[in-house]
Amino acid sequence: MRIGVLCSGNGSNFENIVKGCPEHDVVIMIHNKKECGAVKRAERLSIPHARIKSKDENDIIKMLRAWRVDLVVLAGWMRVVTPKLIAAYPNKIINIHPSLLPKYKGLNAVQQALDSDDSITGCTVHYVTEELDSGEIISQSCVPICPKDTIDTLTHRVQQAEHHLLPNVINFAVLQ
Fold first, then answer.
1. So which residues are the catalytic ones?
2. Strands in 15-144 per DSSP E
3. H or E segment at 6?
4. Strand, coil or helix: what is 91?
5. Which long-range contacts (CB under 8 A, 24 or more apart) does 55-60 make?
6. What SS3 state is found at 173?
7. Secondary structure element (H or E) that encloses residue 7, with its range
8. Which end of the chain lies in a sparser environment, N or C, as judged by fewer CB atoms within 10 Å?
9. Which residues pair with 51 in a beta bridge?
10. Nearest residue to 151 via CA among 98, 81, 89, 87
11. At CA 155, angle to CA 39 and CA 43, rounded to 5?
């Protein structure tokens, strides 16, 4: 399977996909920010990458098609995708979200979980649809919320869960 990864951040999930999915081929990483940590990871891992603004979805689609991508993975892509991208890759776009969906959709999900009375949070891999963080859930991983947790400690544990969950979903649950 040929994978295209869309990133906005430091790229830890991107790197975990590359390393954790050896039977699949990450062929392109697209980032939308000038200062994106994922770029250094892509260069170190010899993965082609391109910076394309989020609003330029026609260019994103052209790039994904040029690389003959089978699966699009949003790994820290901090933008809502439009119906145009979803239509170009129906049921072939997945996202990792830092909550146990359907709870805490959108931004600041870890803070929302920390502020709640919940004893657990976690992360979810789901198919991307036009409604934000509402596509079919593929898999989830739970993370306990500890009494002394801070946003940093809980975020770190949720990210560790993401690093295991996302490659597992790609290897065993998606488009096999």
1. 97
2. 25-31, 49-51, 71-74, 93-97, 120-127, 137-144
3. strand 2-7
4. coil
5. 57/81, 57/82, 57/84, 57/85, 58/84, 60/6, 60/30, 60/85
6. coil
7. strand 2-7
8. C
9. 31
10. 98
11. 10
Q: Which amino acid is at 63?
A: M
User: Which residues, other chains included, contact 156 with Cβ-Cβ below 8 Å and sequence gap of 6+?
Assistant: none
Closest to 78 (Cα-Cα) out of 37, 28, 136, 48:
37
Q: Which candidate, 131, 128, 101, places its Cα nearest to that of 113?
A: 101
Cα distances from 132 to residues 34, 62, 92, 146, 172, in angstroms, run 25, 23, 16, 28, 25
Predicted local confidence at residue 40, as pLDDT? 96
- Reading the block at residue 30, the tokens are 């697209």
Q: Where are the domains of the chain?
A: 2-172
Read off the pTM. Answer: 0.95
pLDDT of residue 78: 87
The upper half-sphere exposure of residue 91, i.e. CA atoms within 13 Å in the direction of its Cβ, equals 5
For residue 174, pLDDT over 80 is answered with no
CA–centroid distance for 49 within its chain: 16
Return phi, psi of residue 119, to 5°: -100, -10
